[in-house]
Amino acid sequence: MQIHTLILPFLLCLPLSLFGQDNLPVPPAPAADTAQRIRYWTITPQTGEMIPAVPDTALTDYFNRTNAEGMGVSVAYLGNLGLPMESRVFFEREDRSEFLFFDPFWAYAKRPDKFLFINTKVPYTNVSYQTAGSRQTKEERFRALLTLNAGKKLNGGIDVDYLYARGFYNSQAAKHTDWVFFGNYLSDRHRLHLFVNPASYTNAENGGLNNDNWISNPEQIDSRPTQPREYGTRFGNTWNYNKGFRAFLNYRYNLGFERDSTFVPVSSLIYTFDYTKKSRRFHAGDTANVNAFYNYADHLYPLRNDKTPNDSTSFHSLKNTFALSLREGFSRWAKFDLTAFVTHELRTFTMMGTAPDTLRTEPDTAVAFPSYKKNHSSLYIGGELAKQTGKILRYGASGSIGLSGYNAGDIHLSGNIETRIPFLKNTASVRAYIFFKNLSPTFYENNYTSRYFKWNNDFEKVNRTHTGGELDIPHTRTKLGIDMENIKNHIYFDKDGYPKQYGENIQVLAAALQQNFRLGALNWDSRLVYQKSGRQNIIPLPDLCVYSSLYLQFKIAKVLTVQTGVNAHYWTKYKSPAYEPATGQFKLQDETEVGNYPLINGYINAHLKQTRFFIEYYNLGPMFINPPGYFSTPHYPVNPPGVRIGLSVDWIN
What we know:
Layout: H1 4-12, H2 32-37, E1 38-43, E2 50-52, H3 62-65, E3 75-77, E4 85-87, E5 117-120, E6 124-132, E7 139-150, E8 154-165, E9 174-186, E10 190-205, H4 213-216, E11 238-259, E12 262-284, H5 287-296, E13 310-326, E14 337-352, E15 371-387, E16 393-405, E17 411-423, E18 426-439, H6 443-446, E19 447-449, E20 454-456, E21 462-473, E22 478-493, E23 499-519, E24 522-533, E25 544-556, E26 560-571, E27 578-580, E28 585-587, E29 599-608, E30 611-618, E31 631-633, E32 636-637, E33 642-652
């Protein structure tokens, strides 16, 4: 019996009777003084509604949240920090964006609706740094946040995210440069949010290992190198360059009256400006190796030629939204916010080559392809209804419909409701949600032309109906969730890398459990997701995804908090989607299974005043599990065993 078949049940099935509910842990929170001086919130993307938020200042598992694996319950990626990834949990995935080449970087990308805006009474700075590997393989990520107020109403700041990971394997480097310039102005009458984000994501492509035995059965390979960088890969000297720029501005003018020297907003006039520019280039300096990879993979690419791959495409979007809102709470009958909006979007797509509907069956031998451009426009109307105050009942609903243009007839409806119920002599929170989408395929799902791929599709609208619910029991540290979805006309990338549409219904079901226990200094935290796909050959999913952490947490000299233990990421074996470098997308494959191998890490994680730091030994498994099988996706192993360290410091002046 393999050792990891014994380890996993131990991590997941420790007897619950060991843990007493009287000693349940209280999650770390910002110091009282900090919480009073700094306020955080996010905004809705169309109307700029402010939603209170809590920053990630918790000590527990800080080290895990800096790893690629920590960016979801379970993620599949190319093994190095900063490389493309896809969540193995279906309901953690988002719809494909209009520029799908950026989608595999979802865990790193900055967005105005996910960004934490700030108002602070004192200047605030956070700096964090992490590193791993030797000089040749070094992985580094530096982040810095600086923000301050000019008076009570105006705030501005900068958020810098720089990632440079050279990679432990051949041609696997990643380099990200991500800036956010942000600000907000808040007064009784005027409310403004600004978000400007220039970004650049560059990653090397190697096609994966040319022989999985480099990792799983090294004894079968003669003259095995001592360094992972010397393992054979399918190709090298090949790059994907993704660049983006986004400028977002939301302005709200409040109409209202004075009541007891306090301004009461009655309605709001809202304007949102949203401009996006993105581009992608696939370039190889070694054409022979790239073409050899596609021949090796036994794919048929009649468009391939003997010229150096140099595909490129770009996307521009200009979106303007006008809205009118009736505010909650200005009178007894105004029990909710009610907002109506109209949005116009203009999109421009540019690709190499002739139009996708111009068939080309022979390789194009020209060094430079001609340029092809397409413009789209869409007009939407919609509304939002939300009750955001109240201890017993809160709810929200939103909807939009495409009136004209490319997205005419598109429908997006969603709603949620939350309440509290008595439970075990305390209270629990119950939340239910639903959405219905009937959306047009994105432009690139229908049209694409390059040196390696060309398609011209006429897909039907994708129909998705989703229902779900969550039970949150704070005093037992328990969260239970159930999600169900029916999908019709699902679009996916087949094993040859081309988009296809499945015209029938597919059902996906998932149940999730988050449970934390504590007995004195001993803690055990776990997150489990069980899921089933109605069409495993179209939407392949692992049945079970698990994150579990067993650790001691205690204080030294009443000022230094220490968390030390081991954790494991685990998923059941399945035919995971493979990665296609020429499009940057994950596609189906039916030859290789990955999974049933725990990624185990040992760590020391500490907090001293306004400083968090950790040291982690990553990927302990190969020391005692044989044969090793630490592949995240087919032919892409995660990094070999090694030490990682990280530091995060807050300055509040």
